[in-house]
Amino acid sequence: MQPISRRDVLILGGVGVAGVLVGGTGLIAGWTSAAGPSSLPNRAGPTGPAFVEANLVEPKILRSSGGTLHVRLTAAGGPTSIAGRDATALSYNGGIPGPTLLLRPGDLLHVTLQNQLKSVTNLHVHGLHVSPEGNNDNVFLAIEAGSSFDYEYRLPEDHPPGVYWYHPHHHGMVAEQVFGGLYGAIIVEDPTPIPVTRERVLVISDTTLDAAGRIPPPAPTDRMMGREGTIVLVNGQSTPHLTSAPSARERWRIVNACASRYLDLRLDGQSMKLLGIDSGRFGTPRDVEEVLLRPGNRADLLITMAAGQSVLRTLPVDRGNTGMMMGGATASTGADLLTLGVAGDHTDTALLPPVPKQAAPRDLRTEHVTGRRELTFAMGMGMGMGSGMMSFTVDGKPFDPTRVDTLVEAGAIEEWTLTNTSLMDHPIHLHVWPMQIVDPSLNGDDSPEWQDVVNVPANSSVRVRIPFEDFTGRTVYHCHILDHEDLGMMGIIDVR
Ligand SMILES: [Cu+2]
């Protein structure tokens, strides 16, 4: 347990110190010297000033044991704390973000989702390679207000390690429910652990609060651009502070849980190695100065701490233009995300074993492609939306839950050309099966690049290859700017 400073007590005044003490969850016991205090959001108490910089709090970790994890997730709206302010928002189990689920390959994850919202919802385990059918990762389920549902997910024995996440996926409600606070991280552990002095989970999200602490409904133009919040949060906090020691080797697992915001992360003064993006890991960790995370993407980073003060920032990202008459330039604004203070005695990293070598990821460029197809993502005026809203389509059609758009034979390895004819970028997500980006290459070298959210820039195409293996069933691909998904930029794939 980390010692609690007077400042922590001050900040947590409204919650109560007892909650902090009992809420402690040891993050990867044995690897880390200190525990994340609790899943309780920071808040200024009645006597505590709201402007005090809060220490980073990590969501509670629920860890599988004996190959199983049973979790009860209660989705509810009500009073909570966001960025140190009293707010009315949505949450899983009262926390923003919800608890972190820690799994191992081969595990059975059992989630009882209790819907205490006023609206229908459901649950998607983003990036997990699991069945899309039945009570698995089935986005066609509708869990009505006041009811509950038992989900069950069996991870394959060879499931790639990585950073994943969960959030609602009921068509038409997704942007509102994620922007409202419903998301949490999932970690699939490495078969061979990576020795570090400390692991952290950083869930980055954004939202907007009005003077009363409520999330205002978006304007139609916000929906067309994809709503972005005025505050960018790390684990529900605004610019929290974290401390480390020189030479410490930390592993940061970062989720972009923003509804629409693109993140261009920089941590000046520190050296970062990228272990992987989304699922699986690179054969060799990459030295990076910045990490681009589109909505839904995740990063698995190693940071060797250098003494001094740093700020984790996201830089502005140009996302193109909606093409609307009144001008529709769309950009994710930059923001400071957290402050990092590295001071004190050097960590003796000589005691830490080196980072183990990873098997090189599979490369579909050398495998036989069984089929090719082109998917076109478009924005147009009017069509069927009424009231002057733009249409959002895949292959000229808005989403229809009764139609199968793409039929694929089980076991196929397909090459898809994702074409974006609009003036703004769209990050395309396919459920269940990850995609290898074939062209254009993202990194300078020739190493395979796997992602489950692939950005397709304005007026351009990206070629990916996908192995439709291990599972059959019906699921979806869509733009992960969640307003675009809700407005129809989603199609159904059936693998059988
Ligand atoms: Cu989009």
Provide a descriptive summary of the structure in words.
It is a single chain. This protein has a domain at 364-495: Cupredoxins -  blue copper proteins (Immunoglobulin-like, Sandwich), CATH 2.60.40.420. The protein is built from 5 helices and 33 strands. The chain is mainly beta and 496 residues long. A 6-stranded mixed sheet has the order 11-10-13-18-15-16, with no helix packed on it. A 6-stranded mixed sheet has the order 24-23-26-31-28-29, with no helix packed on it. Strands 1-4-9-8-6 form a 5-stranded mixed sheet. The N and C termini lie far apart (50 Å). Residues 1-51 have low confidence and may be disordered. It binds copper (II) ion. Copper (II) ion (CU) binds next to loops.
SSE layout and pairings?
Layout: H1 6-11, H2 17-22, E1 61-63, E2 68-82, E3 85-92, E4 100-103, E5 108-116, E6 124-126, E7 148-154, E8 162-167, H3 174-179, E9 184-188, E10 198-207, H4 220-225, E11 231-234, E12 241-244, E13 249-256, E14 263-267, E15 271-277, E16 286-288, E17 290-293, E18 298-304, E19 308-314, E20 317-321, E21 329-332, E22 335-342, E23 371-381, E24 390-394, E25 406-408, E26 413-420, E27 426-430, E28 435-439, E29 449-451, E30 453-456, E31 460-467, E32 473-479, H5 482-486, E33 490-495
Residues 426, 479, 481, 484, 489 line the site of copper (II) ion.
